[in-house]
User: Fold these one by one.
Assistant:
Number 1:
Amino acid sequence: MNEEIVEPAARSRTLGLRPIKVSGHLTAGALLLAGLAWVVRAVWEVRLAMAGEPASGPPDQGNGVHRALNGLEDSYHLVTSLGGGAALLCALLFLSWMWRVRDNARALTGQTPKYAGIWVYLGWLMPIANLWFPRGIVADAFRTTAPGRKLPVSVNVWWGLWVVGMLGGVGIMYRDSTDELIARAYSEVWPLLVSDAAVIGAAVAGAFAVRAVTAVQVERIRQRQPGVVVESAVGGAEGAEG
């Protein structure tokens, strides 16, 4: 039985493939976790708007002067910190997953990827390029792996909502400080909530996109490894792990 369990991994290495199924599950889960974190942020922003700005003014009072935060403002700082941790985990897993699907598409087809590997990272950071390069890498991996298949709608929904959230200034890589966000919640909460909704929608759509792209690669990998069966711990059998 040990030989049967090792065999798929050995064949994958021979083909230059990288395990993708578990990475896809983890990345989709991290996206949903980040979406949940932004739901909590939105709730706290509504609470701030309903409470109203204190008579002492915004936390950042200019010229380097910051007043003491009240309890609600302190808790918003905690919420954004936890959300930042979820976003960092999501980013690390998503980048790893992008590398894997890009490399697997090349290994499966022999085709050179449309985007050089450096763009897996720089594509998120460089102005203008970050408006389409990350989506392009994911779309190219899908189309190369499954030629003739229509790109999943979830990929375009994910990216469209992500760009809306990013341009709104409070996406996962938001520009304003937490104190500035508190001031915005007091004075103009609706733009914040619209951007939050875009990020939440992008996270959910992104989870579906990751699952869809992962599924076609698992299917293609199994086609390249015919007859490979991995016994489960209970004595059943499963197809080779992607």
Number 2:
Amino acid sequence: MREHRPDSLVHTLLDEAVASSPSAAAVADAEGRWDYARLDAYSRAFTDWLAERGVGPGDRLVVQLPTNRELTALFYGASRRGAVFVPLNPHMKPYHLRSVLENAEPALVVCAEGDRATFEAVTGAPVHEFGGVWSEVEKTADRGPRPEAAVDVAPEDPAVLVYTSGSTAAPKAVVCPHAQMVFATRSMVQVLGYRPDDVVFCRFPMSWDYGLYKVLMCAAGRSEIVLADGESDLRLLTAVRESGATVVPIVPSLAAMIATLARREEDPAPRVRMFTNTGAALPQPVIETLRAAFPGARVVRQFGQTECKRVSIMPPEEDRERPDSVGRPLPGTRVLIVDEDGAPVPVGETGEIVAVGPHVMPGYWRNPEVTARTFRRHGPTGELRLHTGDYGSLDADGYLYFQGRRDDMFKRKGIRMSTLEIEAAAMDVPGVRAAAVLPPSDRHDLALFVESDLAPHTVLRELAGRLEQQKVPAVCRVLAEWPLTLHGKNEKRRLAELLDGSDQ
């Protein structure tokens, strides 16, 4: 019999919320709202549904659905059954879908209405459209599920496979066990201070760990999550206000959109007390606009990777301090800065960021070579360390400063520099709404892309007043439509195609 620590299981976060606050609002979307008791009942009904179809511990359950109330019930229900939840972005193209399904080897697939044929063409697993699934779940919830459908789950068992958006066609899934996910969830809630009266407005899909963990964090904080992945850009601020949101997770593109909309209103959303940023550094002008539009709201900087969820958070009460820092390590974890040989570097010097602690995942699904390079055992105790591939430094007080990924750092004209530094300078130019830099390659020199009404030569002239001559790009392209990944990050692969002319 395996050791069973119920407080380290994903679904026990929901159990604890039900035990203390069954009638509190748990999850809302465009169609309605459930309290914790209702969410719990539907999740247990889905556990029963999985058991009836032979899906059990360790089986992969692939789900490609919109992020709504029902998806959260499926997530918790899979956890109770010991199945591995594999959420896929609804916008994933068939080319990538085929590779992911071959890698995951699902025991069962749940997809949107009309997508069954697409899945059946690329997998031999049973495929169920959501409508039929949910009809059965509702019937089971009404009559009550069988308690024996839930199984003994161990904290080290995988709960989720998160497929990350990488630079190659090969799929790469981070294995996320229950224990690591729960530890990261509780630590983030502790630092950010989620409260029972919080309403978290989340515009990100559960296929991205940023959206997935918001569901868990709200359960741990007894907060309500408003799932708004499909919300229109035009009424975004209205939706934030109508939801009564107090916490708004953002990425730079979403923050810029909110800031633009907020300039047009006198009282955009008075209850918002905190914005939490991830994905990329938030430009200072956007931060200042958010602070002006939402008086008293904290703008919290964070840094992380799916491979450990969160590396550091700037404590909310310190959001105006050390503006270049991305905060301190999560409670109970450590951050190391090492050189190419893995040796620690002195305080203030730049090296690779290495995360150590109970939040570090065990590796990538069926990818031992990349796992061995990224997740390394160290010392006589075999301590597992995540080598992030990101570079930064620590100050004397333990605050982390992010410098960029290995691919972001380069030499030009004898000077070492980072794309992030140049992008930040471009965002400081009045009239520039977005910026992305491509480092020099054998096909092009240092290049800058901006979204702006300014002429390219004007942007470059402004940069020349902010940066050393070697850091001023050779070319600037102004785009009318800004390419973003499914997670709201700059789509640099597409920008490279535009620069090289391969899109013609």
